[in-house]
Amino acid sequence: MLIPSIDLQGGRIVQLVQGERMALATDDFAGWIAKFSSFPQVQLIDLDAAKNAGDNAVLVASICTQLPCRVGGGLRSVERARAVLESGAQKVIVGSAIFRDGSPNIALAQRLARELGEDRWIAAVDARGGRVVVDGWRTQLEITPEDAMGALEPHVGEFLFTNVDIEGLMRGVDRGAIERVRAATTRRVTAAGGVTTMAEVEWLDSIGVDAVVGMALYTGRMNPLPKPPV
Fold first, then answer.
1. Do the Cβ atoms of 3 and 43 come closer than 8 Å?
2. What is the total count of domains within the chain?
3. Is residue 101 flagged as an active site residue?
């Protein structure tokens, strides 16, 4: 399945290269919401909240009333995650908060599963150089994404794996890295970072992995489909 992404920063839709360099910014919310309206899921990330630099909560709530969103960025507590679900998100994505002292925060994962339901939250396991990164991709841990997934698997229904090394570069996916995380868990896996062509989306689908696509859609390299592959 192809999942379009909407990243928010400073009240605008943006696309960043490796989470740092601005490549695109637009205020055309209506246009992109219309283009993504036929997709069964859209990934909505509040980058400001993820980096502790304010938030775009009003925009997030508005977009959730118009699109079927899975929402992430700055969700550091069960209470905040619940509030986002109550504002209209279908699922929430929790990343940095599920790691504590360099290891998976199992207590929080258990509480998220118990109070929200395993199927309502997604564990974001982002990686750079083969190691998990947190705090808006600024802090690298020693743990590998595969080991993190193994520890968190009993408490979550889905993982989001973002390969920061190739995020936004449109040079294609790292198939080896994706195959390793796919083999590390029996849970649903979604991959982000480098997805550039429909051939890659189809390959990911063939191994049971969904694809988050951002830069390739916004630049026109890949056109949104009326009926995405499922």
1. yes
2. 1
3. no
What is the Cα–Cα distance from 211 to 151, expressed in whole angstroms? 23
Q: Could you tell me if residue 228 is inside a domain? A: no
Among 46, 48, 126, 210, the active-site one is 126
Per residue in 79-112, pLDDT (tens digit) is 999 999 999 999 999 999 999 999 999 999 999 9
Q: Is residue 224 in a domain? A: no
Task: Name residue 124's amino acid.
Answer: A
On whether residue 207 sits in a domain, the answer given is yes
Active site residue 7: yes
227 located within any domain: no
Q: In 28-57, which positions are buried (b, 16+ CB within 10 angstroms) versus exposed (e)?
A: ebeebbeebeebebbbbbbbbbbbeeebbb
Q: Which domain holds residue 96?
A: 2-218
For the whole model, what pTM was predicted?
0.92
Catalytic residue, candidates 7, 46, 48, 210: 7
Please enumerate in sequence order all residues whose Cβ is within 8 A of that of 104, keeping only pairs 6 or more positions apart, or say none.
98, 143, 148, 151, 152
